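Q: What structure does this chain adopt?
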Amino acid sequence: MIVAQLQDELGNILEQVGSLDGSIDSYLPPADDKTFRCVGFIDLYGETIFNSLQSEVLISELRMLLEKAEVKDRQYIEKLIAMTEKVKAGPHLYLRFSGD
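A:
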């Protein structure tokens, strides 16, 4: 299960979304899928961090996943989009995905 955290430049957690809210795991494309420039690199078993320069692409790709998502996972993906919007709007903010 992947946990996503909105973090500042010092690694302080400002927001978090976890497995109780749903999942993104089953919607992730393979890394070689050229349709997804960001989402395809989310590591199910490691750490993946996105910054403001990547946020616009990430938001677009998360919206594509949201269209395919089951009802139980929509809240999770919607929260990811909201956190990524904050990364886009604010300096020195990052979205960290931690797999298990």
